[in-house]
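USER: My hope is that you can spare some time for a protein that puzzles me. I am handing you a single protein, as its sequence and its fold in token form. Walk me, if you will, through where the backbone shape changes along the chain. The protein I mean follows directly.
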Amino acid sequence: MQPASHPRDELPALAVAVPIPANASRRSVWHSLAGRLADHLPGITLAAALASLSLVLGELDGLQANGMGALTLAIVFGMIVGNTLYPRIAAIATDGVLLSKQRLLRLGIVLYGLRLSFQDIGQVGPAALAIDAIMLCSTFALACFIGIRLLRLAPRTAILIGAGSSICGAAAVMATEPVVRGRSEQVAVAISTVVAFGTLAIFVYPALYQLNARHALLPMSPAAFGIFAGSTIHEVAQVVAAGRSIAEDAANTAVIVKMVRVMMLAPFLLALSFYFSRRKQSEQPKSGDTVRRKQGRIVIPWFALGFLASVALSSLGVLPARAVQVAANIDTFILAMAMVALGLTTQISAVRNAGTKPLLLAGLLFAWLVAGGAAVNVAVTAWLG
């Protein structure tokens, strides 16, 4: 015969049902936020410190005269620290550095739109639109032909490198990956190569501008340089850095042209998705791969839409000049932090491990963007004015 249960035996079950006080829930939320802040703080602090140093040194006349502006110095400092000290502190700094590299970069581009207006976009003219379209199509076609036919690379690797080189660097690679269902190592190789040559462009383009200015090889005003840079350099941040090393007008024009090119990502992905659906490729990712299956989903970068919204707000003329100036100063600091983070995560070993053929393809595409892009810019400008 079992003993009768005592009321106290039910206490544990009743205790489970007791609601948690609201203040305890709020405390857990605050603890969670504090933990996330603690995770991001070291990396953000490192990026902010190096950005501050680059902004101070970027005001020196001697450095500015040699094309070493604040954003250029930021990525230089980032690369130096990234390949020396950073690997030792990466465990505690990675979260904040990635936040600076990704979210702050996009925020910086959105805020950059407050410096521009639709009137400025109208001044760029149809020639810049035509140049963007020609460079996108020709660069991607070359990537497929050279990468697949000549170098015998995997088609998806060539396509990812081509997308990054022809549109907007790592952002284009990540947006194209769900459409082509690239493997994780293919995505890593594509990003490392386009980041490497896009970073190189920050230094090569201003040097070419100064060389051209001394020898008058091509008609190249600061505005024309902006169109050239915006239509051929990989990443938006790299375009800003290269343009700012020449003149503010060059940077403004370069960003406008570049953002037009970024907006071409949507029709590019639509066409690519249509092509893959027509081919009905039977190749599947290998087992164990962690690729996300999002084929057919078209990804439009939110920062491109935010940039347009900022330009529209600026075009209305409702913002006080003082507010625009404060926003511009904040934006410059944010972009400097993003450039530092980009340098911190650009590891020479990762570029070396990418292999010879992907690097060769990215290098050939970079040569086309520089030489072919200059020729296309001159020809189309002469034709359309």
Remarks:
- The chain has one domain: 45-280+293-384.
- Confidence is low (pLDDT under 50) at residues 1-18, 281-296.
- The first helix runs from residue 11 to 17.
- Residues 45-280+293-384 form one domain.
